[in-house]
Design goal:
Blueprint lengths: L3 E4 L9 H16 L3 E4 L13 H12 L5 E2 L15 H14 L2 E4 L3 H10 L21 H9 L5 E4 L6 E6 L3 E6 L7 E4 L6 H11 L4 E5 L6 H11 L5 E5 L2 E2 L9 H7 L8 E2 L6 E2 L9 H9 L14 H7 L10 E2 L2 H14 L2 H14 L6 H11 L8 H10 L7 H7 L4 H14 L5 H14 L4 H13 L7 H8 L1 H14 L3
Parallel strand pairs: 1-2, 2-3, 9-10, 11-14
Antiparallel strand pairs: 4-5, 5-8, 6-7, 12-13
């Protein structure tokens, strides 16, 4: 049987990169085995619903190249795929549990439960306390019927068996054994007609024929309850895999938005504007990250391919991925490594593609340049860039004559005789018939030989004339792109401007 997996986020805000990784691992697993990938929106908690969050989730996953076979945005034979559109069906499953004796009505008010918490340390609603509380286990059937019919608030709770060992078989962690004495009788259904996550999740996974539940480690404590619910219904449980957490860069705790704000990196795939506060959170897309680089980086946060290979396109990830190689321990997020991945992908982009991007950046700054020049320049500087936007910082001097000169370079490289050397070198450049990089290198070499000078006597000073500082690619390449006339203009301007 081909696997059916789902990514089931709640629309309570922007999608954390940990959620993106969960979706990615589900996608890689499904695609490798020829299975189906489903997007289900779990919005049973209407109090936490955030407008725009569902659309944000879909757009984020589309940007990452994660494709769905079924889901809230594409439809499918097991829909609807939004839980609020399915709410009418959940009550019948809660009733099945009531009828089989695996769940019960509880009428305790919030105030009564709070009072219990005050009088009993570590109070929880479970096998040790439920017979002291206001529920259908302690009330007569007639009383229960009257309370429900009169509109009293109630919840339906799971009847967790006392002192039983529940075994969760997990692809990543092996067997996880939990004694039911540690579990509380979780609420499954509320009198407002909405199920809680636990009931809706189990029912939907069963009805949608989900074969593997691959989700974050934070759901591991809920897994014993879910195993029990499958047993209560008499259904075959899916296979489980609980993914390790994404940790702060120092490894101390789960990665949060606060960490990103504090350390200056995004924790969301796309920019998010909070609809209530208008607070803006940065996104990887808007920060200049290339989507495949972002995905490649995320894939290796928790999964080890077992080789030295680090750069994978999506097809290679699909071919190589295995749950067996997902680690148990959390993975530290390294913002510098994220930049490294982006740099590698940028270097793999064609000079033509980067040249067009550079041409657009220049145009935004009021500078027009032809495409051939932009492509040439992009090829010269792309190894120095991490993001496409860095291309301008690394190449602006190709398009603009320096209006200032680095004082540190002047102090170190511009000597009393430098101006004279530059003037004489300019004469040699002016006489050249071909102004190619090779010809320029040869002219500089001849100049040094004829004047018995070392490279240090002119090269850094010539770079200062051309770019205004000590940066840039091979000097002859700069001169060739700038052109003879512009080169002579820059040298003469520097001679007139720089004073020592």
């Amino acid at each position: 049987m081909k696997p059916r997996v789902r990514f089931a986020p709640s629309p309570t805000g922007p999608l954390h990169i940990g959620g993106v990784r969960t979706a990615l691992y589900n996608y890689l697993f499904a695609r490798q085995l020829g299975g189906s990938m489903i997007l289900r929106i779990e919005d049973t908690d209407q109090g936490r619903f955030v407008p725009g969050a569902e659309e944000y989730i879909i757009e984020s996953l589309q940007w990452c190249g994660i494709q769905f076979d079924e889901g809230v945005h594409v439809g499918g034979p097991f829909g609807p795929y939004r839980q609020s559109d399915r709410k009418e069906m959940y009550k019948q499953y809660a009733d099945i549990l009531i009828e089989s004796g695996n769940a019960y009505y509880a009428f305790d008010t919030a105030e009564e439960l709070e009072e219990m918490r005050k009088t009993q340390s570590n109070f929880q609603y479970d096998s040790s306390t439920r017979l002291e509380l206001n529920n259908s286990l302690t009330l007569l059937a007639s009383e229960v019927k009257e309370l429900i019919e009169s509109g009293n608030h109630y919840v339906i709770r799971a009847l967790i068996p006392a002192d039983e060992e529940v075994v969760v078989v997990d692809h990543i962690r092996g067997e996880v054994k939990v004694n039911t004495s540690t579990l509380d009788d979780k609420v499954l259904f509320k009198s407002d007609g909405m199920p809680t996550y636990h009931l809706a999740n189990i029912v939907d996974d069963h009805l949608m024929e989900i074969t593997h539940v691959i989700r974050g480690e934070e759901w591991l404590p809920s897994a014993p309850l879910h195993v029990l619910l499958y047993r209560f219904f008499g259904w075959q449980a899916p296979e489980f895999a609980h993914l390790p957490l994404l940790l702060k860069p120092d490894g101390n705790g789960k990665l949060s938005k606060r960490d990103g704000d504090r350390l200056g990196f995004p924790v969301f795939p796309l920019r998010w504007v909070d609809p209530k506060t208008n607070e803006i959170s940065s996104g990887y897309r808007e920060s200049g990250y290339i989507a495949p680089a972002f995905v490649n980086m995320l894939a290796l946060l928790g999964w080890n391919p077992g080789t030295e290979q680090e750069i994978f396109d999506m097809d290679e990830l699909i071919a190589a991925f295995s749950l067996d190689r997902v680690g148990k321990s959390g993975s530290k997020f390294d913002p510098e490594k994220a930049k490294w991945f982006n740099q590698q992908y940028l270097r793999m982009m064609s000079d033509i593609e980067l040249g067009k991007a550079l041409q657009n950046i220049a145009r935004e700054k009021g500078i027009e340049t032809d495409e051939d020049t932009a492509v040439n320049v992009a090829g010269l500087v792309k190894d120095r860039a991490v993001f496409v936007k860095d291309l301008w910082e690394q190449s602006s001097f190709f398009f603009q004559i320096p209006d200032a000169y680095d004082e540190a370079v002047i102090k170190k490289r511009w000597k009393a005789d430098t101006a004279a050397h530059m003037a004489k070198l300019a004469e040699g450049f002016e006489a050249m018939k071909t102004f190619s990089p090779e010809a320029i290198d040869e002219e500089i070499k001849s100049f040094l030989t004829e004047n018995e000078l070392g490279m240090g006597a002119i090269m850094n000073a010539l770079r200062l004339c051309m770019v205004g500082g000590g940066m840039g690619p091979h000097l002859a390449d700069i001169l060739s792109v700038v052109g003879k006339e512009n080169t002579l203009l820059r040298i003469r301007k520097a001679i007139e401007t720089i004073k020592t």
